[in-house]
Amino acid sequence: MIDSIRLKWLLTESDVRAGAEAEALPLLSVSISWGVRRREASDTTTRAASEDLSNYKLCRAGDLVINRMRAFQGALGIAPEDGVVSPDYAVLRVDATVDKRWLNYFLTSGFTVATMASLVRGIGGTEAGNVRTPRLNISELQSMTAPLVPADEQRAIADYLDRETARIDTLIEEQQRLIEMLRERRVATIAEELNGYDVTRLRRLVDRERPMTYGILQCGPPVDGGVVYVGPSDIVGEGRSPERVALRTTAPEIAAAYQRSVLAGGDVIVSIGPAYGKVAVVSDELAGGNLTQDTVRVALRHDLVDTRFVVWVLLSRQTTDYWDREIMGATFRRLNLGTLAKTPIPLPSLEEQRRIAAYLDQQTAKIDMLIAETERFIELARERRAALITAAVTGQTDVREMV
């Protein structure tokens, strides 16, 4: 049986504020995915030039930095350089006898993270009517134990895990690039099939008796037995209809004032507003339902166009590029009814439209299957990585046999 040691003998909390030194040091952040690193320019939390960081905590290269609100998810790591971190983080100095790579693996292992989760206070609870924020107390972290592993064995474990996790990480990166390539191929496949045809405006393909229109301005609170309605958040698939049981309802009196936007089976719905570009086809079970003001009903003329063909056009790169050009320069990027109505739609013969739609259904399904298989492979690789770390740091794997 491996002896253990309490973390309080290995970790000492440091609460030194940066003061004037903050201006000369990088701002570091903590992530579940990458541990501790500099905040990038693209981070929404990147400091403004005028931001005062004097009250931020100072950390030195080799310090352990913990996001206490997400520690139980693995949001911690060893600082790669001197820097400043959020006052909400915890900074701990690591005893010189400890291999910091080994400690980082131990603290981010599934075994340790699960232990932290059991210590976190306030998950799902309330206090005086307020939701408590889950937060790991450093004293509780220090009360945890770690295996009492000799320094040379710590280095051997860290070397082994560095080597093995690097192999897995490389494999994961390759699979992620494959997914990007498959997604690019999917977009290109759709675009290629739609090129080379004369185009018309979407509004010219709509039933004149049921013109394009948005829906209810204020739907009000849900009503039992009320009229279902569809909003942008309800559209989740490429042309798939929302399920009736998942939709919200409005009072019949409110819906009655919006007869112009009543839905029928086979109608196309397009989201506009800031969450624009989602497309659904209404199932028969939603007939009689309605829309929100950020969705538009498109009742197509089936003697002119195939519904599934139009769905693919609306989801194509050509349409996305057109919408982007039309709303370029606007203070708020929103698609409106007028721009949607002017969207160019290729118009081959009905027979050709059906052929294209069937082909794209088939080809995108194949690509989607490959993407799903690759995503599952990545998930299994990450599970393997986590299991490898846990086995090594808890002594289940003797790394000396792995040399």
What does this structure look like?
This protein has 403 residues and is an alpha+beta fold. It has two domains: 4-148, DNA methylase specificity domains (Adenine-n6-DNA-methyltransferase TaqI, Chain A, domain 2), CATH 3.90.220.20; 198-347, DNA methylase specificity domains (Adenine-n6-DNA-methyltransferase TaqI, Chain A, domain 2, Alpha-Beta Complex). The protein has nine helices and 21 strands. It has helices spanning 100-108, 110-119, 138-143, 151-194, 252-256, 307-314, 317-327, 337-341, 350-393, and strands at residues 4-6, 11-14, 28-31, 35-38, 57-59, 64-67, 76-78, 83-85, 89-94, 126-127, 130-131, 145-147, 199-201, 213-214, 227-230, 248-250, 268-271, 279-281, 290-291, 295-298, 344-346. It has a four-stranded antiparallel β-sheet with strand order 2-9-6-7, covered by helices on one side. It has a four-stranded antiparallel β-sheet with strand order 14-20-17-18, covered by helices on one side. The longest helix is centred in the middle third of the chain and has 44 residues, at 151-194. The two termini are 23 Å apart.
Number of domains: 2
Question: Care to count the β-strands?
Answer: 21
Strand content: 15-25%
Number of helices: 9
Averaging pLDDT over every residue, what do you get? 90
What gross morphology would you assign?
elongated
Low-confidence stretches at least 5 residues in length (pLDDT < 50)? Answer: 44-50, 122-129
- Main sheet makeup: 4 strands, antiparallel
Distance between the termini: 23 Å
* CATH-defined architecture of the largest domain: Alpha-Beta Complex
How would you classify the helix and strand content by structural class? alpha+beta
CATH fold name of the largest domain, please? Adenine-n6-DNA-methyltransferase TaqI, Chain A, domain 2
Cα radius of gyration in angstroms: 28 Å
- Strand line-up of the largest beta sheet: 2-9-6-7
Helix fraction, binned, reads 25-40%
Q: Supply the CATH class of the largest domain.
A: Alpha Beta
